[in-house]
Design goal:
Number of helices: 14
Distance between the termini: 46 Å
CATH class of the largest domain: Alpha Beta
CATH topology of the largest domain: pyruvate-formate lyase- activating enzyme
CATH superfamily of the largest domain: tm_1862 like domain
Bound molecules: S-adenosyl-L-homocysteine, iron/sulfur cluster, FE3-S4 cluster
Strand content: 15-25%
Length: 468
């Protein structure tokens, strides 16, 4: 269970509202913004909040960063290449700034939250006007006002790690699917992972606040809600406020489709499995990152479960929800990983039969426990292993797809298919992309279909006709 959060005071939130009003009235303020988001849904959701505040200031979203007066980079640092990509893009923006001296460039998110990176950005990127960490998102209006008034760069990097800001404006990207963050931060300190250092301690929003947000979304016509947190299974504030209780309350509210991520296997309780099995609207999909199939590596990763415990959880899930789709995250090349330990991961993947997986090569992150370990593997070896793992996973995906032929599914249609204008595309209940004949009138609708064919990363379907 998470520690009691400290709520950002109403005075601090009022200061932001006042700053928003004053900026809106400034004739010389930026008129348009563009946010570039890297990383996970946590960042995606923060970007929606940043956009919400900027729109209240009267700014419009520019579809291209080249046309914006204000560009914000919301960065990720979970692996080195995520960081490299973000920095490369920031460097490129300097060229735009040479053409438009009034362009404002801001960098925020997880990468900035690391003090050594914040320092590096400020030293090496003098054209960055605004830099702030993950705990300062709500202060964007105040920071921007100072910048606009003084012309001096503004940097804020709060180290208070257990705050929650309620009631901020949000500009949602998609009107049919919405994210609700239910808990922030992480206490697990998996030995390879930087997230606990840049997102702070675990803290849960109150169930009342979450349910109120869900009700508003439901009334606005949202069809699917994705509950977000680094470890949603440990959501809770004591007493009645547990994750299974939250799921049940949302299910009863009538939200058409409910998803959540991420679940940590060590906290996947029987009560949660029961809530999933008993719910009418909780989708039959679970993202359950395993990381490795080797007990030695799992121990070194500080994951707090064994291969056997994980398989037992998978077994219980499938007993309760036979058609559940499982997805996972896997890390290849953890320091000291032997060929035999890697093969344990391969065999676990075959045993579980996942729908899909995100596979990553281990990346050492400064400040984490694993960064101090010896036994780093050469790149040639890790890329060879990840190649093998991806092939095994593709076979697993194809087995899943084959087993779904002839089955019925419900697709929340998102768009016209990019490949064929006579087809629409969306996600089924297991999170798999499904395409079938349709038109723009289907977008935002949940449509029953029958799966007829499998492709590389998608399933093809046909509409269920009346009476089927
Ligand atoms: N909270 C989630 C995941 C957060 S990060 C969980 O516990 O499952 C998303 C994924 O990135 C992780 O599951 C892991 O597979 C991967 N990851 C995190 N740190 C990494 C690192 N240092 N190197 C490679 N992959 C990493
Ligand atoms: Fe990182 Fe582990 Fe926390 Fe996930 S549970 S965010 S992998 S420390
Ligand atoms: Fe990246 Fe931060 Fe998410 S490090 S994965 S954006 S929590």
């Amino acid at each position: 269970m998470s520690k009691n959060p400290v709520y950002i005071t109403s005075e601090a939130l009022k200061r932001q509202e006042d700053a928003i009003e004053r900026i809106a009235a400034m004739p010389e303020r930026p008129q348009s913004y563009h946010i570039v988001t890297y990383g996970c849904q946590m960042n995606a959701h923060d970007s929606e909040t940043l956009a919400g505040m900027l729109e209240q200031m009267g700014m419009l979203e520019a579809k291209d960063r080249k046309e914006a007066d204000l560009v914000l980079f919301n960065t990720c640092c979970v692996r080195e290449n995520a960081e490299r990509r973000a920095l490369g893009n920031v460097t490129w923006l300097n060229e735009l700034k040479k053409k438009n001296a009034n362009l404002i460039i801001g960098v925020c998110g997880c990468m900035v939250q690391q003090p050594h990176m914040a320092e590096r950005i400020l030293k090496q990127y003098p054209f960055v006007d605004l830099a702030f960490g993950t705990h300062n998102v709500y202060e964007l209006p105040e920071m921007l006002e100072v910048l606009l008034a003084s012309g001096n760069r503004v940097v804020r990097l709060a180290q208070q790690e257990n705050t929650i800001a309620e009631g901020l404006p949000v500009k949602r990207k998609n009107s049919n699917k919405a994210f609700i963050t239910i808990m922030y931060g992480c206490n697990n300190y998996c030995s390879y992972c930087i997230v606990p250092y840049v997102r702070g301690r675990e803290r849960s929003r109150s169930m009342d606040d979450i349910l109120r947000e869900a009700q508003t979304l439901l009334e606005s016509g949202v069809k699917e809600i994705m509950l977000l947190g680094q470890n949603v299974n440990s959501y809770g504030n004591g007493g009645q406020e547990t994750f299974p209780a939250l799921l049940k309350a949302l299910d009863q509210m009538g939200v058409p489709r409910i998803r959540f991520m991420t679940s940590h296997p060590k906290d996947l309780s029987d009560a949660l499995i029961d809530a999933m099995a008993g719910g009418k609207h909780i989708l039959n999909h679970l993202h359950l990152p395993v990381q490795s199939g080797s007990n030695e590596i799992l121990l070194a990763m500080n994951r707090h479960y064994t291969r056997e415990k994980y398989l037992e959880r998978v077994y219980s899930l499938r007993q309760a929800i036979p058609n559940i789709g499982l997805t996972t995250d896997l890390i290849v090349g953890f320091p000291g990983e032997t060929e035999a330990q890697f093969m344990d991961t391969v065999s676990l993947v075959e045993q579980v039969g996942y729908d899909a997986a995100f596979t990553f090569i281990y990346s050492a992150r400064e400040g984490t426990a694993a960064a101090k370990l010896t036994g780093r593997l050469p790149e040639q070896e890790t890329s060879e292993r990840i190649g093998r793992l991806i092939r095994v996973m593709e076979e697993s995906t194809q087995r899943t797809y084959q087993s779904m032929l002839g089955q019925q599914e419900q697709v929340l249609v998102e768009s016209i298919s990019k490949r064929d204008a006579a087809m629409v595309s969306g996600k089924g209940m297991r999170g798999i992309t499904i395409t079938f004949p349709g038109s723009s009138a289907d977008i935002g609708q949940i449509i029953p279909v029958t799966i007829i064919q499998s492709a590389t990363n998608t399933l093809k379907a046909q509409r269920l006709t009346e009476g089927e």
